[in-house]
Write a structure and sequence with these properties.
It is a single chain. The protein is mostly helical. It folds into five domains: 225 residues, Leucine-rich Repeat Variant (Alpha Horseshoe); 225 residues, Leucine-rich Repeat Variant, CATH 1.25.10.10; 77 residues, no CATH class; 33 residues; 98 residues, no CATH class. It is 68% helix and 0% strand. The chain is built from 38 helices and no strands. It is found in: Cytoplasm, Cytoskeleton, Microtubule organizing center, Spindle pole body. One of its GO terms (cellular component) is spindle pole. This is TOG Alp14. It comes from Schizosaccharomyces japonicus (strain yFS275 / FY16936) (Fission yeast). GO terms for molecular function: microtubule binding; microtubule plus end polymerase; microtubule plus-end binding.
Length: 831
């Protein structure tokens, strides 16, 4: 195929190229499918959509007549099984497995055979076992011995890899005697291998089941094979996906504390949040100097520096009360971007760092302006300035997340200053290492697309920083998700990215194999829920940290101590019967009789409450009661994943029923709304297609009108050209006619002269008769056809006859002129 043809084929839809008559086009389509499957971000990605609606395409692909295209099709199907959803794989089984059994296992290419066996094993790993085994067993009755031997070998490989716990022998054993009696020696040889693999798992029961149907020679050969087998029990070489998930869950179990391993970054972050909750918040907003804005606008850098240095201790608080700090953040960001003095820039960055740490999650509204200003000023090369800017960026990122900031940070990866590009990549690397949540697909695309050009940058620090970012991102989301971005890199740069990938460390927790229960809206983000409670209590109490968690307080606010509820609980425990104790199922009932909290307390809130109550009150009896309550709360939080309804109120079951009914009604409403939206979308698609057809028809009409207009213009030009024909001497007809008129005027003047001469020579008869003859002969042509009539004729008349008539008239005129000249000469001689 030529280059033009290949380009045209590449523009065809994928579904068309998959069934194209040219095998090279099909080969390219199969390879494209393989690449798309391997780079799919999710099992339900859009690249699998074609195969869910048309699973029969696999049959045509796997039974391709060209061996090269068939090998590419088998490789594509392997990637499909690996990364597609199990539901999508199950839809393809009815078409793919018979095609593999009939054509691929007996292919002349070794790669096709190996990939076909691997594809069958991958299907078994998904959990689809019976359709595969039944298809292979059904092919044992084929007429072609090569086909039978290939399928027997495939089934033997499956038994060897998965064992008889997965590949049930009940379907295989009844057909073994028929295979032993096959006329082809290769079939009998593969049958012996299948029987030996079954014997390793089943044992003597297999020999007893087939001994009566085999020949003594065959039985003797089998016994020799059985005797050579090892004595240890076989192990399953390949696991199902469900078994793989269980093994990963076992490996991911927490290590006992006595092994001296360090805590994970997530646990460290949890401890830091606990310490933050215990600290009393400070109202920094009221302590901002009123002259700070004017001092920061001063033309003297020392005044700006002194103002920031005086303000830094004020804002350096471990916990800052939330307020509107927009103006303050904008002033500091402006100093960071515009100030020429690096000391002022460093101090302003430290102020933002302290403010972000003190506000914690309440710094979220100011993260964007802070990150932009810090990255813009990161063009400085001084180490102290870069250190202060980086620390402020890290503190600001702690109040937000990577999905919200990825677009803004990635813009600086293409900055004109190479130092800014370097620091941008370093900041992205720190964010990827510290994030505890996997980034979304769009975020991964933004970061990878921004860093790939940096790997080829002309500035070496940019290349190293970009390669490090890609390596950490690869560690975070997996190699195959980043492969589509690194394909354009050369081998040296790929090796550099891979080296950073091997040494990278991330803080994301591994995903659990079991589905996690859906958390309530109050527990989904503890940081954002807990802090507003602090703000509401700080207005009425001097120490907000002591009044933060009020879960274990009694209903009576006026009661000074909870001693009476404690005594009531102890009395109830002493007087309760075993039957009444058996009825208790809620962990809250094992402690004091307390009102039901609005949200189920977590382990962290229990720790905080214990610390606060132990600081506020003393007494060994109260401490023991609190410790016992906290232990029960911990047990409930660790073991019970669902919120437990309180047993103190009788309205709780009714409220639960009402919530369930409300949820069902909401789900029904959502389903109806979804169906309406889908119908609306379908209608809009139909209208769009109709409009597109109308637009195409209008375009065709416009093209036809343009063509007609050009034809009309050409006809008009041709008519005008015909209306101005050229004469024999190169002059047009109007020019010839004008010269003819001029000659007529000359003739008129000449005739007047002749008339005067006639008066003078009237006495000479000979001369008069000669003159009369010449005059008559001369005036015979004084009435030519008027040129005006020729010019006034419409263009539709035939101008070729007029033109010839004018030429003839001109020739006759020339002759008469010559005769008149001769006559004039004779007249002068007579005079």
């Amino acid at each position: 195929m030529s280059g033009v043809d290949e380009e045209d084929y590449a523009k065809l839809p994928l579904s068309t190229r998959l069934t194209h008559k040219i095998w090279k086009v099909r080969l390219g389509a199969y390879e494209e499918c393989k690449t798309q499957f391997s780079r799919a971000f999710e099992p339900t990605d859009s690249c699998f959509g074609l195969w869910t609606s048309n699973p029969d395409l696999w049959k045509n692909m796997l039974m391709d007549g060209n061996v090269a295209a068939q090998e590419a099709a088998v490789a594509a199907y392997m990637e499909f099984i690996k990364y597609a959803s199990p539901d999508y794989v199950s839809k393809s089984i009815a078409f793919a497995i018979p095609a593999i059994s009939e054509k691929c296992l007996m292919s002349s290419r070794a790669g096709t055979k190996v990939n076909s066996l691997e594809a069958l094993q991958l299907v078994i790993e998904v959990g689809i076992v019976d359709p595969v085994v039944e298809t292979l067993v059904a092919s044992f009755g084929a007429r072609l011995p090569k086909l039978v031997a290939a399928n027997v070998h495939a089934l033997s490989t499956l038994v060897e890899s998965f064992g008889t716990k997965i590949i049930r022998p009940e379907t295989i054993v009844p057909v073994l005697p028929k295979l032993f009696g096959h006329a082809d020696k290769n079939v009998r040889k593969e049958t012996v291998g299948l029987t030996v693999n079954l014997y390793r798992w089943v044992g003597v029961r297999l020999k007893n089941a087939i001994a009566s149907d085999l020949k003594p020679v065959q039985m003797k050969e089998l016994e020799a094979q059985f005797a050579a087998l090892p004595e240890e029990k076989p192990t399953q070489k390949r696991l199902l996906r469900s078994q793989q998930a269980e093994s990963k869950a076992v490996e991911a179990q927490p290590v006992p504390e006595n092994q001296g391993l360090s805590a994970s970054p997530v646990e460290d972050q949890s401890e830091q949040e606990d310490e933050y909750d215990l600290v009393e918040e400070v109202d920094v907003f009221s302590k901002i100097p009123p002259t700070l804005e004017s001092a920061l606008s001063s033309v003297k850098w020392k005044e700006r520096k002194e103002a920031l240095e005086d303000f830094l201790p004020v804002v350096s608080q471990p916990k800052i009360k939330d307020a509107n700090f927009s103006d303050l953040v904008q002033m500091l960001a402006h100093r960071i971007v515009k100030d020429a003095n690096v000391i002022v820039v460093t101090t302003a960055a430290k102020c933002l760092d302290s403010l972000a740490k003190g506000l914690h999650s309440f710094f979220h509204p100011y993260v964007s302006i802070t990150i932009n200003a810090l990255l813009e000023r990161s063009k400085e090369r001084k180490a102290s300035v870069i250190e202060a800017l980086s620390a402020a960026m890290d503190s600001a990122f702690a109040a937000s997340n990577l999905d919200a900031l990825a677009d803004e940070i990635a813009q600086f990866a293409s900055h004109k200053n190479p130092q800014v590009r370097t620091e941008c990549c370093h900041f992205l690397s720190r964010c990827l290492s510290k994030t505890t949540v996997l980034p979304s697909k769009s975020t991964v695309d933004v970061i990878a697309s921004a860093c790939v050009p940096g790997v080829n940058d002309t500035f070496e620090p940019v290349r190293n920083a970009a390669a490090e970012t890609l390596g950490i991102l690869m560690k975070l989301v997996g190699e195959r998700h980043i492969a589509q971005y690194t394909d354009s890199l050369d081998d040296i740069r790929k090796a550099k990215v891979k080296s950073y990938f091997e040494t990278a460390t991330v803080s994301v927790k591994p995903r659990s194999s079991r589905p996690r229960p859906v958390a309530s809206s109050a527990n989904r983000n503890p940081a954002t829920v807990r802090r507003p409670e602090q703000r509401s209590t700080s207005a009425t109490a001097n120490k907000p940290s002591l009044a933060k968690n009020t879960v274990l307080k009694s209903k009576s606010v006026s009661s000074p101590t909870p001693a009476s509820p404690a005594r009531r609980v102890s009395a109830e425990r002493s007087s309760s019967s075993p039957a009444a104790a058996a009825k208790k199922k809620n962990a809250f009932e094992e402690g004091p009789l307390l009102p039901r909290p609005t949200t189920r307390p977590t382990l962290r809130s229990s720790k905080n409450h214990l610390a606060m109550r132990s600081l506020a009150r003393g007494g060994s009896s109260q401490k023991g009661l609190l410790n016992e309550t906290v232990l029960h709360l911990k047990k409930m939080d660790l073991e019970d994943s669902e919120p437990t309804p309180a047993k103190q109120t009788k309205v709780a079951p009714q409220q639960s029923t009402i919530n369930v009914s409300e949820k069902m009604n909401a789900l029904n409403d959502f389903a109806a709304e979804r169906s309406t939206l889908l119908a609306q979308i379908q209608k809009e698609r139909e209208e769009k297609s109709l409009l597109q057809r109308q637009v195409s028809e209008l375009k065709r009409e416009v093209a036809s009108l343009k063509e007609e207009l050009s034809n009309a213009n050409m006809q008009q030009e041709s008519r005008q050209t015909i209306a101005r024909p050229l004469g024999r001497d190169g002059y047009s007809v109007p020019t010839s006619l004008s010269s003819f008129q001029r000659d007529n005027r000359n003739l008129d003047s000449f005739h007047q002269g002749l008339a005067r001469s006639r008066l003078m020579l009237s006495n000479d008869p000979a001369t008069r008769s000669q003159f009369t003859f010449n005059r008559s002969s001369s005036f015979a042509f004084q009435q030519p056809e008027s040129p005006k009539r020729v010019m006034s004729r419409p263009p539709s008349m035939n101008l070729s006859s007029d033109w010839s008539r004018a030429m003839d008239l001109t020739a006759k005129l020339k002759e008469k002129i010559e005769q008149m000249k001769q006559t004039d000469l004779r007249h002068q001689s007579l005079i």
